[in-house]
Automatic annotation (TrEMBL):
CDD domains: GATase1_1. PROSITE patterns: GATASE_TYPE_1 (PS51273). It comes from the Bacteria. Coiled coil: none annotated. This is Glutamine amidotransferase domain-containing protein. It comes from Kerstersia gyiorum.
């Protein structure tokens, strides 16, 4: 089987629990570290699927690798190669496939909840979580403000209306960070805690305090992993074998 490509853009935007979940599902994978200078592949047909992780940059930034990733995403979509995006990755996918990315009304940072839609599409991807409130971890200022044509919204919350989408039944975009591990949460706070403190001081209701961000990490990240395992159990069914 061809490997799944995992694109890492920044140190904090590491794939977290994703590789272990793919291992558990029996799916080979290859890390493509844009952070370390790896080139964006020219051909989508070398991979069974592609996963795009997060990052501090905007999908609109004039970075050569961003344009190359968007071209690769369009090529993959034309081949029906399954795509998955986490935070920035979901925004890059949306921008490449005809949606729009813009500033969210307020940054979301730390632990929060999203609500899965109560419909067959959400049930297919989220199982028993459809129609339910889900714990998640957020760290974003932008969002996919308009879904790609044909995409179906599968999650929302009061601070950011678009929290997840499915496109063509095989591609999944997630605004939040379901991939977080305890170490990755701690690293996020170490590297970007000043932004959290500023937003908290400004009264942003979509931000959790540093102490709340670090509390009960084992239990919280275990819950995230369970949700992400459900999503990827569905996603891998569509991979090019």
């Amino acid at each position: 089987m061809k490997p799944v490509a995992i694109f890492q853009h920044t140190e904090v935007g590491a794939p977290g629990s994703v590789p272990a979940i793919l291992d558990e599902l029996g799916i080979p994978h290859r890390l493509i570290s844009i952070l370390d200078g790896d080139a964006v592949p020219a051909r989508a047909d070398a991979y069974a699927g592609m996963i795009f992780m997060g990052g501090y940059m905007s999908a609109h930034d004039p970075l050569p690798w961003l344009a190359e990733e968007m071209a690769l995403i369009r090529q993959a979509a034309s081949l029906r190669t399954p795509l998955s995006g986490h935070c920035l990755g979901s925004q890059i996918m949306a921008a490449a496939l005809g949606g729009a990315v813009s500033r969210n009304p307020r940054p979301e940072i730390g632990w929060g909840r999203i609500t899965a839609t109560d419909d067959p599409q959400a049930e297919q991807w989220l199982g028993c979580h459809a129609g339910q409130s889900l714990l998640t971890f957020q760290w974003h200022g932008d969002t996919f403000s308009r879904l790609p044509p044909g995409a179906r919204l599968i999650a929302t919350n009061p601070h950011c209306a678009h929290q997840g989408y499915v496109l063509d039944g095989i591609h999944i975009g997630m605004q939040s960070h379901l991939e977080m591990t305890p170490a990755l949460v701690q690293l996020s706070l170490e590297r970007n805690g000043a932004q959290l403190e500023r937003e908290l001081a400004a009264g942003n209701p979509a931000v959790s305090s540093p102490s709340a961000t670090l509390a009960d990490l084992e239990d919280k990240t275990r819950t995230l992993r369970e949700t992400l395992f459900t999503l990827y159990s569905q996603w891998v069914r569509h991979l090019h074998r």
